[in-house]
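Researcher: Sequence recovery benchmark, item below. Answer with residues only.
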């Protein structure tokens, strides 16, 4: 007697459950709609410092930052600086409180600086802290959309930014 084949995926979950499952997976992974970021600072007073949101370079004409508190968009043609850097911290507090082995580990934060000229031809800047898993895609998208090369603060940032 031949082994019994499992039922097709559709019949196990039903069509609607399968579609919902796929949509949920896309939503969790970000679906290519942007990169999770926090506005650290810059010259834009309309965005409060520490504002968490999404920075997206998927629009045809604009780099966009949006959150519950604020939103901002910059035309790619106005961007004149793309800089990537890292801040590396040793976990000293955890080492003191928990174990000295934490001194061997490092916590890296990834920062993106975008400089541009506004409508009045004044130089503006925005600094974002971007999650580790999102930084490479964002840098590549910005290079492609603006035609500018990313400037790296140091060799470690160059290696992390290019992979």
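Model:
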């Amino acid at each position: 007697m031949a082994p019994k084949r499992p039922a097709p995926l559709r019949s196990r979950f039903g069509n609607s459950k399968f579609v919902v499952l796929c949509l949920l997976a896309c939503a969790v992974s970000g679906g290519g709609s942007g990169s999770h970021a926090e506005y650290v600072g810059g010259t834009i007073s309309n965005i409060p410092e520490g504002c968490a949101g999404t920075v997206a370079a998927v629009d045809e004409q604009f780099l966009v930052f949006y959150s519950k508190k604020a939103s901002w968009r910059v035309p790619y043609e106005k961007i004149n600086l793309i800089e990537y850097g890292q801040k590396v911290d040793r976990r000293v507090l955890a080492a003191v409180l928990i174990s000295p082995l934490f001194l061997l580990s490092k916590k890296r934060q990834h920062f993106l600086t975008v400089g541009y000229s506004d409508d009045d031809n004044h130089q503006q800047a925005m600094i974002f802290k971007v999650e580790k898993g999102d930084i490479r895609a964002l840098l590549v998208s910005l290079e492609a959309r603006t035609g500018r090369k990313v400037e790296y603060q140091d060799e470690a940032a160059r290696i992390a930014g290019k992979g």
